[in-house]
Amino acid sequence: MTGTVPPLAIAPSRPSEDCRMADGPLVATSSAREVARAWERFAAGEDIETGVRPEILASWYRCRDQYEVDRKLDAAPAAPADVHRTDTGVIFTALGGLGAMAGKQVERDDAVVTVTDGDGRVLGAWGDPTTQRRAELHNLAPWSSWSEECTGTNGMGTSFEVSGPVTVTGPEHWCEAFHQWSCAGISIRDVVTGSPVASINISRWNAPLPTSIASWLTKSVACIEQEIYRRAVYEADKVFSEFRKKCSRVTGPFIAMDRGGNVIAANEAAVRLLGLTDEPSVVAAAIEPAQRWTLDISGLPDVLRWAMDQAQGSEQWSGYACLPVSPGGEATPLTMRPIVDSNHVMGMLCFLGVQEGEPYVGSPEASVNPLPQRVIGMRNDRLVLLAPSEIRYAEADRNIVWLITERGRIQAATRGLDNVERLLTSYGFRRVHRRFLVNLRRVAELERGIKGELFLIMNARSHEVVPVSRRHAPELRRMLGV
Question: Gene3D superfamilies, alphabetically (predicted)?
C-alpha cells in the first residue's frame, strides 16, 4: 500500500496567528466571516441561496429541514452496535492500514485521521495525541456516529451525500460546537449499488487544511476501490454461473441480477418481455458493472432491498412480490432466490410469472414523509431552489441527475433518478424512460419516429426532445389522452 499512496503533509504544522480570531473560532478571513453570517441567518430559519458553497448549503438544508439536527449539538451520538458484514472485512483492513499510515504522517501537523463504515460510524482514529483528546470531547472517536443525519454537516457525513472529496471548514459545519474544526473526507462507494461502504477523513483544530488534501484523498482510496471493483466482477461471475446452470430448465422469463438490481443476464423470454433487445451484453452476460442493465420496474428497488435483508445467510430462502412489469399493466409476480457465498448475498435469480416463498409486504413509511415544496439544485457556485413546476424533465447520467428548467440545466442535490422520482411523483412527474423523468404538465408536443418511436417535445421553440421507451408508451398515451 505504501507504494501506491502518495505522502501526506499538511504543513505548516502550526497555524499562524492570521488564521485565528482572538476568541478562537476559525473565521479570520473575509470569506469565513461571510459564511458565519450566512450560517446565523440560515440557523435562524431564513432561506438563503448564496454566500456559501452549494454543496455545503445543500447539506445545511438537509440538516435543518430533513434531518432536523440540533445546531447546538456538541458531541456526536453513540452509534448502534451492529456487526459488520463479513464481505467488507478486506475493505476495512485495507482502510485501517491507510488510516494508520496517514495518522503517522499528520501527527506532526496536529491533525487526526478517522475512518468510518458506510453508516458514518467511526471505526478507528490516528494522529496527534493532543488533537485526538480534543476530538474525543466531541466524540470524534470509535463507535460514534458522524453521518449527516446524526451530527450535521461534516467531512465524513457529507462525503456520503456528494461525489468525490469534500472539505468542511469552520462555520461550514452545521453544529456550532464544531466551528473551530477543519475537516476533509471522501466516501468509498460500492460499484454495484452506488451506496457508501466507508469513508476516510482528516480533521484539524483551529487551522485550515490545504487544497492538496482533496487530491490526496482521491488517490489514496484508489487501491480500496480496486478491491471493490474486483469483488463486483467476482460476484457477477458467480451469479452468471448459477443462472447458466438453471437456464436450460426454465421456460418462462428468467433473469440474474446483481445486488443493486442491475441485470447481469436474461433468457430470451425475459429479453422480449422487458424490451432488452438492444442490450446484447445482457444476453451474453454483463460481467463488467458498467455494461449491466437497470430494470425500469416501479417498486423493484424496495422489493430488492427487502429480499436482500431476508435472504442474508440463507441459500434456501425465496420470496415474491407482484409488480407492474409493464407501465399501466397488471401486476406480475416475481420470485427471487438468492445466490449466497460465505453468508453473503451476491445477487438474485428472478423468475417472472412465478409466485413462491415469502410474500412481500410494502412499507408505509414513504407515505408518512412530507413532500417537498421545492427541489434543491446546484449550479456553479450557487444553490438553486426550484419549485417542481419549474422543472420540465430530469435526466440521469448514472447517479447524477440533471434538472432541465427555465433557468437552465441544473444538477440535482439528490443523487439517483429513483430518489428524485420519489420526490416528484405527486407533482405530476412520470418515468418515460430508464434515464428520463418528465413533468407531464410541461409536455408541449408528441412526435412519432419512422419506426413508430414516440418522443416528447418539451420546448417547441428549441425542439427539446425526450425519448419514450416502448414499454412506457401505452401508459403515457393513456395518461395524456392521445
Answer: 3.30.450.40, LytTr DNA-binding domain (2.40.50.1020)
